[in-house]
Fold this protein.
Amino acid sequence: MSGRETGGAERRQGVTEHRHGPRRRGQGELEVQVLSALREADGPATAGWVQERLGADLAYTTVITILTRLLAKGVVTRERTGRSFAWTPNSDEAGLAAHRMRKVLDGEADREAVLASFVTGLGPGDERLLRELLGRARGEGED
């Protein structure tokens, strides 16, 4: 391809990016952003408050969809306030990531193989941390 052809492709790509606006965020990324915004609130927050916090390029209906998904996962609670709801986080980003990990594991037929593959891929520091956490969990269960 000549430099002129490459330049044309770059220009066309730039036009396409401009026409479609800012890059799309993934569902998981939006969940983390919505949860982070809720954690910054002084108390229960409305979807409108979350939308304002995250920026005008995010549709109100998208915020409602993400909040509803987080509610289904048990990560947030809601209470009726007038004609809408106020939302409160039950969990943090680590809890949300752990929920996703459990969901992936639950979707696999061979749990042992998945866990074995995960554990063997851990670095020494993570392996040590996992052993400590498992030891603490066992100790708490013995009470």
Notes: Confidence is low (pLDDT under 50) at residues 2-19. The longest helix spans residues 3-20. The chain is about 65% helix and 10% strand.
